[in-house]
Amino acid sequence: MIDLIPHRLRQFGQLDLHRQPAQGLHVVLAQGRGSHLVVPAQWMSLCWPIRGSLCLQSGDLEWRLAAGHCQAWGDGVLRCRSAQPLGWLVVTGARPAWPELALPHREGAPLLPWQARVSRMLAHGLIALAAPLRERPGAAPEEACAMLLEHIAHWQSDLHDRLPRCAGRTQPLRHQAMTRLLRVRHAIHCDPGQRLDLEVLARLANYSPCHLLRLHRRVFGETPFELASRLRDQRALELIRETDLSILDISLRLGFENQSAFCRAFKASFGTTATDIRRHAPARTRRAA
After folding, report:
1. What are the respective helix, strand and coil percentages of the chain, to the nearest 5?
2. Is 166 strand, coil or helix?
3. DSSP letters along 55-86, please?
4. Greatest distance between any 2 Cα atoms in the chain
5. Superfamily assignment of 4-161 in CATH?
6. What is the β-pairing status of strands 4-9 and 25-31?
7. Does residue 37 contact residue 55 with C-beta atoms inside 8 Å?
8. Alpha carbons 138 and 286: distance in angstroms, whole number
9. How many CA atoms lie within 13 A of 275 on its CB side?
10. Contact at 8 Å (CB) between 170 and 151?
11. Rounded to an integer, what distance in angstroms lies between the CA atom of residue 244 and that of residue 249?
12. Are residues 30 and 37 in contact, defined by beta-carbon separation less than 8 angstroms?
């Protein structure tokens, strides 16, 4: 039997789950400005900003989770807060409270720390779990949780497909190796414009620098530096197309030494200049990112 513990946070509401029982899954629905949630270390969490972007922090890392994305987390104390009026949902609990994911043709697997765009199916599963908090009829807790786990398994299927490439003779060891690599990838995602220090990334994963490069390439088909370069290219294109920031401001924001270096890198990546991309972007009201 699955024990669901509901919580509702209104404007400026605060909840520290260190003071809550470790048994069962906690379902937290927050609405309004200034709500704040603290999740203990080693708990697995699934965070979904329904409207607006959610501020997340764990250790020295801070990042924003945009609406339309979902964050799975289980790597240290997690703080969730909303500075602006928005709605968000967190499902969290100690690892034993999470049933293992039912993956086809594979032994059960745990939730992995990951951020990606939320699928429609996963959103439906989260909504079903939060139905009682919204004072709407919903499925029984076991049925709603089974639906959610099924959709999480589908959402994370690509990661679990990569697990056999990880070092380790057993499933728990391979899962540990994947979690270490995801820790490195998350640090890069938080700030793709930063100057990467291989020694720092290796310490995050508790690997030697050479082993980190080798294992990351084997599992994901690219090095951490290639990942950072790809993310920076994506961010550059978004800022050029969707904002009115100057080329110089974008260059500095993405960690380039000067505008010329940014322009050379942009043309090498996209085969055209940033100015041409902006000139031919669809007419729309651009925002300052």
Report:
1. 45, 20, 35
2. coil
3. EEEETTEEEEE-TTEEEEE-SS-EEEE-SSS-
4. 61
5. Jelly Rolls (2.60.120.10)
6. parallel
7. no
8. 40
9. 5
10. no
11. 10
12. yes
Cα angle at 66 between 64 and 69, to 5 degrees? 120
The residues with which 166 forms a beta bridge, in sequence order, are none
Taking the mean position of all CA atoms in its chain, how far away is CA 147?
A: 21
Q: Residue 260, Cβ neighbours under 10 Å: how many?
A: 10
pLDDT digits (tens, 9 = 90+) for 27-54: 999 988 899 999 999 899 999 999 888 9
Tokens for 233, please give them.
Answer: 């290219």
Domain 166-289 is in which class?
Answer: mainly alpha
pLDDT at 83: 74
Per-domain residue ranges of the chain:
4-161, 166-289
Low-confidence ranges of the chain (pLDDT < 50): 105, 284-285
- For residue 270, the SS3 value is helix
Joined tokens for residue 263: 């322009």
Q: Which residue has the tokens 């404007």?
A: 11
Confidence (pLDDT) at 64: 92
Whether 235 and 256 have beta carbons less than 8 Å apart is answered as no
138: which residues sit within 8 A by CB, 6+ positions away? 128, 129, 131, 132, 144
